[in-house]
Amino acid sequence: MNTLLSIGHGYSAQALARRLLPQGWHVIGTTRDPAKAAAFRTAGVEPLIWPGAALAPALARATHVLCSVAPDAAGDPVIAAHGAELAAARHLEWVGYLSTTGVYGDHAGGWVDEGTALTPTTARGRARVAAERQWQTLGLPLHIFRLAGIYGPGRGPFEKVRQGSARRIVKPGQVFSRIHVDDIAQVLDASIHRPAPRAIYNVCDDDPAPPEDVIAHAAALLGLPPPPEERWEEAEMTPMARSFYAESKRVRNDRIKDDLGVRLIYPDYRAGLAALLAAGG
């Protein structure tokens, strides 16, 4: 039986599981939280409390592995704890690692693709570059997925717009790429069925856009006025929020289309937001 070991079974991995389970897959998902473990079981996923329980038995059963765990200042925690076991798991048919387009750094709104040099300007981006390289040294059939900003059910802007807490922070020239979680899942599914070890894929939609445009469009869909603009230089933001505005780029996604045959379900934020609202927000 095809078995996916999903290490750090979070938002994107759960969307993949919803595609794989009807195809007859078995999915093992790790979590730190016993309450989430119970929810996994209800959804048809075998839960594994990790860190805590041994990973080796699940790894031995797995045919495929997906890692969604973010690195920390010390490096990739999965490799730190289980690098030797992973490197010895020569039975694996496919391994996926979820990274971020933050590895490319700032390009002043210019275009980047998978061949662009990795020049991150944030600590998070540098940690991701280091983690990608750690995974690449294991000798596994590795596929790296560099995800743009993720949205989807439970992660849309509508609630904040309704509550009046949404913000339209304007920094001239600032653009972000985005991706709906269902499109992440279909890219991962397509890669599993068309494995190409050592492949790297940007996972984003077709329409990089200023963040204030997305908020304004969400308000328009709700029939509400857009929140007032705030100048980036004057806006009160946490250091984490401000760091997202330190880099601006447009990310190309040709490879997921040309190599994996993906046709995006939501090719831009307009289609994605309309679908979220139609589904209840």
From TrEMBL:
Keywords: NAD, Oxidoreductase
UniProt key word Oxidoreductase: yes
Gene3D superfamilies: NAD(P)-binding Rossmann-like Domain
Enzyme class: oxidoreductase
Entry-linked CDD domains: SDR_a4 (cd05266)
PANTHER family: EPIMERASE-RELATED
Name under which the protein is recorded: SDR family oxidoreductase
Organism: Ruixingdingia sedimenti
